[in-house]
Amino acid sequence: MRQESASPTPQPQPPDAAEEDAPGARWYVYLLECADGTYYCGITTHPERRLEQHNGLRPGGARYTRSRRPVKFRACRPCADRSQAGRLERYIQSLPRCRKLAFFLEMNPAFPLFPCI
Q: What is the dihedral sign for C-alpha 25, 52, 66, 29?
């Protein structure tokens, strides 16, 4: 006799994670400057919350920025969806340091660098 395995119960997600998967959420690619002068590029739906996480004011944040606090926003751009944000993030991460901030300026010089903060 074959035993039916019970389907796993879905684990509850923290509220912030659920918000990022919400349909219609606006995605952003952002560039941080760390205290040691290095840049960190990431994506989020809530730039203000993400900055607080990177600075240790809220749970979360990247391992890279934990030892390089405080961090501050240098640039932030909206994207159409998560897929586009992820592709843009990977592209920016592949650029040399001297081109990362310049990339945001070249996208549209008339657009303010901090539309989301």
A: positive
